Amino acid sequence: MQQHIITENATIIEALRRLNSLSGGVMTLAVTDSDRRMTGTLTDGDIRRGLLDGASLTDTVDTIMHRNFRAITPHNHTTDQITTIREFRRQGIRLIPRIDQNGRITDLIDTTRTRSQLPLTAIIMAGGKANDSDPPHSPAPNHSSK
User: Fold this and answer.
1) Whose CA is closest to 65, among 85, 99, 93, 38?
2) Which residues are 30's β-sheet partners?
């Protein structure tokens, strides 16, 4: 998870290096403030647009990051979270932050690697009555009529 998190006072060149290290994976960074609260997201596209608008590689990422990010919050009920994840997937969002009540990242869901986020609790009960005196493979009972 840490490889996808960068502080807002990191430079653009640092962010490019971080994104480059993610090559082959989800190319998105979650940006945090000094208190580790999420303040935005950053992609290579955000950096490209920032540089075209005059930003320099030594500027900090808070000058070009996307501030209107979407996240799963504690206010989302479990069913709302599942619906939200499905909606994010439909929109092509590949890295979904889950934040706590203070805005700190508790999880980053990579939708390219995570197939499901279902809240399941299950008990599997199988088999029948065991008897140590029964042979391991008892023949099927003969139910033919006489």
Assistant:
1) 38
2) 5, 41
3-state secondary structure of 37: strand
Rounded Cα distance between 16 and 14, Å, is 5
d(CA 122, CA 101): 29
pLDDT of residue 145: 54
Reduced to 3 states, what is the DSSP secondary structure of residue 21? helix
d(CA 67, CA 46) in angstroms, rounded, equals 11
pTM, rounded to two decimals: 0.71
Compute, in degrees rounded to 10, the torsion defined by CA atoms 53, 91, 84, 74: -20
C-beta separation of 34 from 7 below 8 A: yes
Which tens digit of pLDDT belongs to each residue from 47-101?
999 999 999 999 999 999 999 998 888 877 666 777 778 888 888 888 999 999 9
C-alpha–C-alpha distance, residues 53 and 63, integer Å: 11
Helix axes 12-21, 44-52, angle to 10 degrees: 150
Show the tokens assigned to 70. Answer: 């979407």
Query: In the chain, which ranges are E strands?
Result: 5-7, 28-32, 38-43, 95-99, 105-110
